């Protein structure tokens, strides 16, 4: 058997991954305006600890941030505690890189008796090319307004 091992493990360079594949959709020159119905609710920068073994940001990390962003909007609208009950599909058309500035916009799609459905859109301002923005994903998340016992409560409209 061949027991020749490399003296050092290959290192994972996050810089090597900062070059983006050409986007299918064009870069935007500016972010959408934040309005009452399409509100910028969260900005966050992914760190090296949020990477997978390829040096790209974990999809699951982005999903968690989407859940937080949607929950901020849901919390405001329902004026209290909420729980995530359902998420429609996530499609990632562009990778997210360490150091990108991510902006999360939330808009209310539907308010039911106890549930609220929020669309969250995510834009990345690229680390190496600031002032240019790419939409990286969007998702539709449904939250249920809950009381102190975790039971659904009616949303006052
Ligand atoms: C959220 C929770 C309190 C809802 O309780 P429930 O008894 O299942 O509630 P109901 O069946 O009465 O549904 C409540 C609302 O959610 C909606 N809902 C339920 N399942 C849904 C689904 N799959 N998609 C969209 N909406 C859904 C219902 O339509 C209803 O909305 P409405 O009152 O506006 O018509 C309960 O399911 C729960 O605690 N889930 C775990 C939540 C959680 O921990 N999330 C994080 C996971 S890590």
TrEMBL record:
Pfam families: 4HBT. GO terms for cellular component: cytosol. Residues 36-149 form the HotDog ACOT-type domain. InterPro entries: Cytosol_ACT, HOTDOG_ACOT, HotDog_dom_sf, Thioestr_dom. This is Acyl-CoA thioesterase YciA. Keywords: Hydrolase. GO terms for molecular function: long-chain fatty acyl-CoA hydrolase activity. The keyword Hydrolase applies. It comes from the Bacteria. It comes from Brachymonas denitrificans DSM 15123. The lineage of its organism: Bacteria, Pseudomonadati, Pseudomonadota, Betaproteobacteria, Burkholderiales. GO terms for biological process: acyl-CoA metabolic process; fatty acid catabolic process. Belongs to the acyl coenzyme A hydrolase family.
């Amino acid at each position: 058997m061949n027991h020749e091992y490399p003296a050092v493990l290959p290192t994972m360079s996050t810089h090597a991954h900062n070059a983006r594949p050409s986007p299918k959709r064009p870069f935007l020159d500016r972010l959408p305006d934040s309005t009452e119905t399409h509100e910028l609710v969260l900005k966050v920068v992914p760190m090296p600890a949020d990477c997978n073994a390829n040096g790209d940001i974990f999809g699951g990390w982005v999903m968690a941030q989407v859940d937080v962003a949607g929950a901020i909007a849901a919390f405001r609208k329902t004026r209290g505690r909420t729980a995530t009950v359902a998420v429609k599909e996530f499609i990632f058309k562009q990778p997210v890189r360490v150091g990108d500035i991510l902006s999360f916009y939330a808009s209310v799609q539907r308010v039911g008796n106890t549930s609220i459905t929020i669309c969250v859109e995510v834009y990345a301002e690229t680390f190496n090319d600031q002032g240019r923005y790419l939409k990286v994903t969007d998702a539709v998340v449904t939250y249920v307004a809950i009381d102190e016992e975790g039971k659904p409560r009616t949303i006052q409209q």
